Amino acid sequence: MIIQDILEAMQRKHQSQLSQSCLNDDQHSDDHQMPEFQVFFNDQESNDFNTLFTSLPQDKQYFAAGVPGSFHHRLFPESSIHFVHTSLCLHWISKSPEVLQNKASPTWNKGRIHYTSAPDEVVEAYASQFAEDMENFLNARAKELVPEGMMVMILVGIPKGMPYSEIPMGMMCNGLSSSLMDMAKEGIIEESDVDSFNLPFYAASLEEMEEIVEKNGCFRIERMELTNPAAYLKGGPVDIPVWVTNVRAATEGMFAKHFGSEVMEEMFGRLTNKLVDIAELINSRCEVKSQLLTVLKRK
């Protein structure tokens, strides 16, 4: 659906510019043909691209191809792409900061699986890894985009200075940490496994993203704003079980690899119960502007 929206916008833009050109040059728009579009879908190598291709609309007005690989590195030939769109991906960092495993350091993230509710040193370690990954991402896309090519990025964000524990996703992370620690105390899993696991995602503020882009120097900022990620709820309550199911779909692979697939049902069940208990608090915070929209143009 996103691709369809993008292509329709491009077609309208092309038609508008063509009409203006024809008025100036006294030509007919019929003399010019709408360009053809090639869409490249990128995801990790382990993902099932066949499922993607079979779900594409039969009447699609573009050619489709899959490009497996990490977006933290180059994916396409130099100056070969005109438009890049990335949705809810870039908050995933390339790895958990290694300093979080140092038991002698203030960055040791004992009893938690994220920087939510963690000391400042842990938050700073995550922020540093995010900045490094974004620099690599911007450099790679700068090589691949044509001059004046555009990039639209949607990722998890947060208002400057707001603790991550005050937004629903932070409450989700705290619930996961709490569920795992409860299971460790009951002997279902090892506490050391909780201490050694850290979810590799970071929510940047608008100011952080702006600084990273300006420091990189390859792009002009056309638009940057924090938006409401729960606008689709239209004022209604969050369906906690559905929300947990969506989070599980995105994260279960990481959790199962570290803790074992046999405890996943128990872990996500406990998480659901914990979030149901604080549903009123979650719903009171779900309209916090914690989704970062960034539109860039290649210099």
Describe this structure in words.
- With 299 residues, the protein is of the alpha/beta class.
- It has one domain: Vaccinia Virus protein VP39 (Rossmann fold, 3-Layer(aba) Sandwich), CATH 3.40.50.150.
- The protein has nine helices and six strands; from the N terminus they run αβαββαβαααβαααβ.
- The strands form two sheets. It has a four-stranded mixed sheet. A two-stranded parallel ribbon has the order 1-2.
- Helix 2 links the parallel strand 1 (38-43) and strand 2.
- Helix 4 (168-185) packs across helix 8 and helix 7 packs antiparallel against helix 8.
- The two termini are 29 Å apart.
- The mean pLDDT is 93.
List keywords for this structure.
four-stranded mixed beta sheet; 44% helix; alpha/beta; 9 helices; globular; 6 strands; Rossmann fold; 299 residues
Secondary-structure-derived class = alpha/beta
Which residue ranges are poorly predicted, with pLDDT under 50 across at least 5 consecutive positions? none
Which oligomeric state applies? single chain
Chain-averaged pLDDT: 93
The CATH superfamily is known as Vaccinia Virus protein VP39
What is the CATH architecture term? 3-Layer(aba) Sandwich
Radius of gyration: 22 Å
Number of strands: 6
Overall outline: globular
Strand order of the largest sheet: 3-4-6-5
- One letter per element, helices H and strands E, the order comes to HEHEEHEHHHEHHHE
Per DSSP, what share of the residues sits in E-state strands of 2 or more residues? 15-25%
Q: Count structural domains.
A: 1
